[in-house]
Automatic annotation (TrEMBL):
One of its GO terms (molecular function) is DNA binding. It holds the Pfam family Sigma70_r2. One of its GO terms (biological process) is DNA-templated transcription initiation. Belongs to the sigma-70 factor family. ECF subfamily. Keywords: Sigma factor, Transcription, Transcription regulation. It comes from Phocaeicola sartorii. The lineage of its organism: Bacteria, Pseudomonadati, Bacteroidota, Bacteroidia, Bacteroidales. This is RNA polymerase sigma-70 factor. Residues 22-82 form the RNA polymerase sigma-70 region domain.
Length: 187
């Protein structure tokens, strides 16, 4: 099926046209994704997200424009968005850990900030203690013993991907609950 016809049919909701476009372009999108992602799972997620978005936005497609170019732009944007998300998570994690570090608190904060930081530290300790066992173990090994995901995976006898998921869930839980504390404290 020629590209212009496939786009016209896709705009009308044709699953056959979508399947044809997917079969034609998935490997190109995947290979492009692999240039910018760390794992094959991340590249597969990029491909899936790009094609889902293509389907969702099909009515906006223009038969006169290059579908391949559009797919590459969508892929690039997805990867950049994911990178920004991970960067924001890392910045948040670092700021929580910095607040958690008592040496930093003693040397860089006034008395009121030290009191708030100690309260936050106690609150974080309680939150860490309330995590499910595996999340708590992975988080503690990562943040208090400074082990890499690979070292944690070996120690816990699980995959690195499982370690990443456990720590991501723990950070999400801490972020949600620390945000609530910040809102409460600022009232």
């Amino acid at each position: 099926m020629d590209e212009k016809r496939a786009i016209a049919l896709l705009r009308q909701g044709s699953h056959e046209a979508f399947s044809s476009i997917y079969a034609t372009y998935w490997s190109k999108v995947y290979n492009f994704s692999r240039l910018y992602t760390v794992s094959t799972d991340d590249a597969k997620e990029a491909v899936q997200s790009v094609f889902v978005k293509l389907w969702e936005k099909r009515e906006l497609l223009d038969e006169e424009k290059s579908l391949e170019g559009l797919l590459f732009i969508m892929t690039r944007n997805f990867i950049f968005d994911q990178d920004k998300k991970h960067l924001n998570e890392e910045l948040y994690r670092d700021s929580v850990l910095q607040a958690y570090n008592e040496d930093y608190i003693k040397h860089h904060c006034d008395l009121e900030e030290q009191i708030i930081a100690k309260q936050l530290s106690k609150h974080i300790d309680l939150l860490i203690d309330s995590l499910p066992d595996k999340q708590k173990t992975a988080f503690t090994l990562s943040r208090k013993k400074y082990l890499s995901y690979k070292e944690i995976a070996i120690e816990m006898n699980i995959s690195e991907k499982a370690v990443e998921k456990l720590i991501t869930k723990a950070l999400k839980y801490l972020k949600q609950n620390c945000t609530l504390l910040f809102i409460f404290c600022s009232m």
